[in-house]
Amino acid sequence: MIRKVFVLFVVFVLAFAAMTAEASSIGDLQSELKNNENKIDSITDKLKEVKSEKYGVEKQIDELDNQIRSFVSEEDGLNDIVTEFENNISLKEAEIVQIKSDISSNTDLLEERLRAMYKNGAVGYIEVLFNANDVVDFLTRADMIQRVVNSDVEILEGLESQQTDLEIAQLALKSEQNNYYRAIEDVQSKRNDVEIASRAKETYMSSLEDNIDELKKEEQKLLDASNDIEKKIKQKQLEIQYAGGEMNWPAPGYYRITSPYGMRPHPLYGYWSMHTGVDVGVPMRSNIVAPNSGVVTYAGWYGAYGNIVLIDHGGGISTLAAHNTSVLVSEGQSVTKGQVVSYSGTTGMSTGPHLHFEVRINGKHTNPMAYFE
Ligand SMILES: [Zn+2]
């Protein structure tokens, strides 16, 4: 006897375990799905954050590029000035070369004159002087020679002083040009600093882009996973066999049908319409139970239906209990036959406390009374 009870107990436990394993796996999948969706939300937030940061860095890079461009144009302007100095220095150089050649030819001339004078020796020179007819003639001749030499020397001195002036002017130009070279170096060094800053920003931006790619990949993975889970849930729901057998009456103790399934005048508006379930007269806050085991697919407010509990019993068969005051179960939860799932009421479009009860086959309403003896 004890042994028989024990065996029955084991059978019961195994059956119960099998049933909850089957039913809770949809619940597990649904909570996995929710968990996945939370992760997707947080990745979407993170993506938004990184993208806005990237936008900020892009603007900073644009700003630095503008600075680089203005440094380049400043440098171009300075280079133009330097080129102009270069031209002026070249012109001065040409003048100096001309003067040098003038000096050289004048020097040759003077040397020739002096050589001619000394060729005849000092005697010749004195002879020239002594051949003078008189003192005045003598003085005139000496004076003339001296004048010729003096004039040659004066011309040479003039040319040399011109050369000196030109060289000084050229040096001044070179020194001023050097100032511009220094200004160019200064601009180049500033531009270099900005370019280094810009490159650093670009490196950072490319790391942000990598980050975005990574997040997008992760997001895609999670989206794929969600799709898989959804498919699995649908599959599981199809796999569930209808628990079988008759249904339990959803409102224990209350059996009076106040409005049957079928065409009827609408209780509030009077027009002729289809009544998709049966109305059972029940007082407020009566127990409403699961007519069979299954998984809750919706629990809560549903417009004109008020608070509902929708249960998937497998095999495409679902039941719906409407107008409840409150519901005791939640979506994804597995329920057993006869389990209290809600308290009756008159929520939604309802004229008074009652249970509106539907049976649906693959979503289409059918006469619920066919499921009860
Ligand atoms: Zn109804």
Explain what the structure shows.
The chain is an alpha+beta fold. The chain folds into 2 domains: 50-217, Helix Hairpins (Orthogonal Bundle); 244-371, Glucose Permease (Domain IIA) (Distorted Sandwich), CATH 2.70.70.10. It has 3 helices and 13 strands. Strands 1, 4, 6, 7, 8, 10, 12 and 13 form an 8-stranded antiparallel β-sheet that branches. The protein has a 3-stranded antiparallel β-sheet with strand order 5-11-9, with no helix packed on it. A two-stranded antiparallel ribbon has the order 2-3. The protein is rod-shaped. Zinc ion binds next to loops.
Question: What would you say about this model in short?
Answer:
This protein is α+β, with helices and mostly antiparallel strands and 373 residues long. Helix content is 62%, strand content 15%. The structure holds zinc ion (ZN).
Gyration radius from CA atoms, angstroms = 56 Å
Q: Could you say what the CATH topology of the largest domain is called?
A: Helix Hairpins
Determine the N-to-C terminus distance: 35 Å
**What number is the mean pLDDT?**
86
Helix content class: 55-70%
Instruction: Give the helices and strands as they follow along the chain.
Output: HHHEEEEEEEEEEEEE
Q: Which range does the strand content fall in?
A: 15-25%
Task: Using brief descriptors, characterize the structure shown.
binds zinc ion; alpha+beta; 62% helix; 3 helices; 8-stranded antiparallel β-sheet; Helix Hairpins
Question: What secondary-structure arrangement, pairings included, does this model have?
Answer:
Layout: H1 2-119, H2 121-130, H3 135-239, E1 257-259, E2 262-265, E3 272-275, E4 278-280, E5 287-289, E6 294-301, E7 307-312, E8 317-324, E9 326-327, E10 334-335, E11 340-343, E12 355-361, E13 364-366
Antiparallel strand pairs: 1-4, 2-3, 4-12, 5-11, 6-7, 6-10, 7-8, 8-12, 9-11, 12-13
Helix pairs in contact: 1-3
Bound molecules: zinc ion.
